[in-house]
């Protein structure tokens, strides 16, 4: 396509004065010298021809073109998402207005045999003087240099803060090694999974002073906490959450990678995207949108169980729980927000890097939405794109706000709490269907109303409720199994699960239901239609799907995992409870926060277009899992663990069981 543009300039010419005439003459020189591109010593014009992309989404050779004194790398962006663009290593004398004049002259010219293919691609209608083309001209090196080259004040401030944190950590490490504090082994449940009675976040022994504060930041100590193994005996049946969380995190990363491939990156084989989505092998990629429901379900189980274990009628106790939970989550969330918002733009490079800051587009106006965990409602009830995936933490915090109240009700009247549980699950189901119908949502996130799907359905607590509420119910059951409290419904379920036939039927039905809910989407994806409307299902059927989606997913996880929580299916739980999972599970919070920014940096720093295939996607996914966990380890050791250790110290050490309220994040 790019060659057609250049040949059109050469054969037809473009009328113009001044710069435009010189620009066209330079383009003609590129064509005349094109054969020299194959010589051992090509001249400047031949190199410009060689460094130009030869077809749609071919990015040419950006760095080589950028290094030439008489050349300027340009991109004709025809579509943003999915990207359709043409890359040209053109003459330096050509301005944006020159390119617009040249392209518009092609659009408005008569469609001949010479330019028919180009005219057809650019969107000419049957009326040769009217075009439906909308495009933009971009000079990436100028864009990147003006915005991402010199450090601004906020970037410098973030670097200073980071250096200070590293210096404090190094100082704390030296102090820790010198002082050699002898500490009592504390069995507390504060690790990232919320389930291990070890010293993962044990605090220094002694008074709150400068030495002990520095020890909270000790790199050696924090690495040991991260790598420590479970040694508790109070709730060993929850250890299988380790493996479950790590596998779920891998699924989430797959979704991030796949989303970039299918919607945000220039693909050499872009024409095959629709065909790829129709293949069953793509199911795991777009099905990853449902992965976070597992995290919500696990969170519900842990919150219910541990809050019940630490129950107190004291108002001060519950104020501390709210405050402590907020303070445990906010340091890492806000550090990640400011770190990548201010510095990510300076880390990557390449011809497509001009799109790099899109993930932080709302930070200037709405950074505070992350601080208060309201990013899924700001602005105007929609969704902030300031660290866009942070909506999950906002929803989680909003769930946590009403959870202690439900725990209080359960302690007073278990039956009333179960009635509320049933009501909230039903409400979430009803609202899911109503919202899907009101906004005409589509099963496919690549179909129409994609923005509405994220703004009004995917990121809202009331549509996400069912899996979390199911998790709370399972937390009630597990608490009852360990305390024998007066909860007749929990006792009845426990009695059922003791029955071998029912137990295996529960596992089988849970797995089957999960497979059905994951696979049912494929019926829509396999038939996208010529206009990519994904309109196989009627709106009524689509709304019904959204009404029951989270309800049935939550039920599937409950049927599958409740017997395991109660100690059955030891073969499965033994594998998922392996100590090999534990350090990676503790990194889940950090991995989730950094995975989208890290993946954006690596994927958008491409020098050549991506080629969509199972092999290339798998290799990128596997490599990025390793990269994300590597950087999550650094963030955990320097930011997350020290912050949680210090907060634990402020709130005081709690005994392992009676006064326990250290909760999973």
Automatic annotation (TrEMBL):
Keywords: Membrane, Signal, Transmembrane, Transmembrane helix. GO terms for molecular function: acyltransferase activity, transferring groups other than amino-acyl groups. InterPro entries: Acyl_transf_3_dom, O2_lipid_transport_reg. The chain crosses the membrane at residues 155-179, 244-263, 283-308, 329-348, 391-410, 417-436, 465-481, 501-522, 542-569, 581-602, 622-651. It comes from the Eukaryota. Residues 1-16 form the signal peptide. Residues 239-636 form the Acyltransferase domain. PANTHER family: O-ACYLTRANSFERASE (PTHR11161), O-ACYLTRANSFERASE LIKE PROTEIN (PTHR11161:SF0). This is Acyltransferase 3 domain-containing protein.
